[in-house]
Amino acid sequence: MQLIECVPNFSEGNDLHIINQITAEIEAVEGVRLLNVDPGKATNRTVVTMVGEPANVIEAAFRAIKKAGELIDMSKHKGEHPRMGATDVCPLIPIANISMEETVKYAQQLGKRVGEELALPVYLYEAAQVDKSRSNLSVIRAGEYEGFAKKIMLPEWKPDFGPAIFDAKRGATVIGARDFLIAYNVNLNTTSTRRANAIAFDIREAGRVKKVDGKPVKDENGNPVNIPGSLKSVKAIGWFIEEYGIAQISINLTNINITPVHIAFDETCKKAQERGVRVTGSELVGLIPLKAMLDAGEYFLKKQQRSVGVSEKELIRIAIKSMGLDELAPFKPEERIIEYMLANVADSKLVNRTLADFADETASESPAPGGGSIAAYVGSLGISLATMVANLSSHKPGWDDRWEEFSNWAARGQAHKNELIRIVDADTKAFNKIMHAFSLPKSTDAEKAARTAAIQDATRFAIEIPFKVMVVSYQSMEVIKAMAETGNPNSVSDAGVGALCARSAVIGAFMNVRINAAGYNDKDYVNDILAKGKEIEDKAIALEAEILTVVNKKIGV
Fold first, then answer.
1. Phi and psi at residue 219, in whole multiples of 5°?
2. Which CATH superfamily does the domain covering 182-342 fall into?
3. Non-local CB neighbours of 14 within 8 Å, separated by 6+ positions
4. Rounded mean pLDDT of the chain?
5. Which of 418, 440, 422, 442 is nearest to 430 (CA)?
6. 402, 305 in Cβ contact below 8 A?
7. How far apart are CA 227 and CA 207, in angstroms?
8. Phi/psi of residue 167, each to 5°?
9. Cα–Cα–Cα angle for 480, 486, 492, nearest 5°?
10. Which of 104, 220, 414, 507 is the most buried (most CB within 10 A)?
């Protein structure tokens, strides 16, 4: 499935009746999920995030733009954020199984439809704009709504779509395609917009205009010479937010692979301190990718020389606290992290249960969860014990110079644990897939052929899932062995139990591989997978024996 994200910004942040009418248009489109609605009172602007298959998202965006034009009167609009229209900007962002080139075509398609059907001036920006002299949003929006009546009459500012006529009520709209952008505000202990702007100029890529004796320095072509800021792919301005009674630095991170959010935060702290200002926290506008939060958590733990091999939940908590993301309002990961918003609760039916409920479900008359899920869970418990030993070792008094060594082992352990936890539910999904295939109709020859193909496809899936358990559980034994040999000696028995669990996971998963392989018609594939499985099983049994020898020797009793 192709997925794109759309993040329209509407010039209304106070009237919830208007905002709700706009978002209702989005929610009315089947196949589109409204992920986040983030109104700002001082900016008088609402950032909406939706995701779905491209054609559905385009339809939802069109309806929202139309409704915003009907409800918002730009001639009466006031707000702290730069703006030029009722729907100020509407970017499309590739999320899954779709290229930027394909996303560009959808942005251009949306722009054309808005311009023609709604008679609204539309400008393309970023990757969707062919003319790179006007692809930058800030360049397009320069002069804002108030200056647009004159700007739109200039030949060089003829809209890409729609009439070249100033629309006093709706303004103009900018539609484009871009990479994932994080809108992020850093809070300051000052009310001075001038000081906030000075810090913004220090960090943003564009920097500030170079001046000598108070006058701008120009190059040979008469253009102002800029002194670049310290961060690449960063746009920033300072403003005062009356709602909070503080100045903020409003930051757009246009490429988080170049400048991630935690680097932007730390650099802002540094530049603020140089100017006698303190950063007190920050706030996220809209959503953020999970990886950005995990990277931030790891970054701040490494600065403390602490192990990064902790749970996903703990990494996120560290990121929130380190950047003060909860200073102005509670930060709820399930509402702000895009992957969590997209997650299907049904896909995590088992792992989200209590231990008692999981055991009860396993013991019930239902055939799933079965041995495959249990093997995956046993494997996850084994590597969890080794990860615990690594974390304890990284914090052991007197071993301070080894924190990074054990942190790396713990991080590897967490990765194995996460993969095995994911497979707990995947194994049940494989069983359900087989049951569904057997339930398909078989009246005609065509139906019989389709049913047979579905059964074979489901059977192969049911072979590959427990085989993955074997592979990951065996790989986890390297971490377990290292902890038995070099970890905190007080926890060596935990490493031993981990080895028992990992070995059991490998053997149990191989049983599931074998029983499912019996129903698969491709015998070359079956013979190959069984040979590989037997090799992994033998190696796991041998490695468990090695680990237990080390463990029992250290226990000594």
1. -85, -175
2. Formiminotransferase, C-terminal subdomain (3.30.70.670)
3. 39, 41, 44
4. 93
5. 422
6. no
7. 5
8. -100, 100
9. 60
10. 414
Between CA 83 and CA 419 the distance in angstroms is 45
Provide the 3-class DSSP secondary structure of residue 144: coil
d(CA 89, CA 68): 12
Q: What is the pLDDT of residues 97-150, one digit of tens each?
A: 899 999 999 999 999 999 999 999 999 999 999 998 899 998 999 999 999 999
- Model confidence over 8-28: pLDDT tens digits? 999 999 999 999 999 999 999
Residue with tokens 């139309």: 66
> Which of 12-21, 395-404, 434-443 bottoms out in mean pLDDT, i.e. has the lowest?
434-443
The one-letter amino acid code at 188 reads L
Percent of the chain that is helix, strand, coil (3-state, to 5): 55, 15, 30
Structure tokens at 321: 């606290």
Q: Which amino acid is located at 125 in the chain?
A: Y
In this structure, whether the domain defined by 346-555 belongs to CATH 1.20.120.680 is answered with yes
Residue 333 parent element (H or E): helix 333-336
CB 520 within 8 A of CB 459: yes
Query: E strand or H helix at 419, and its extent?
Result: helix 403-438
| Cβ-contact 296, 397 below 8 angstroms | no
C-alpha closest to that of 395 among 317, 495, 482, 308? 308
Residue with tokens 């996220």: 284
Contact (CB, 8 A) for 74 and 169: yes
The residues that are catalytic are 81, 427
Report the distance separating Cα 57 and Cα 32, nearest Å. Answer: 6
In this structure, what DSSP letter does residue 548 have?
H
Q: Let me know if domain 3-177 sits in CATH 3.30.420.10.
A: no
Domain boundary assignment for the chain: 3-177, 182-342, 346-555
Give residue for tokens 């300072």. 238
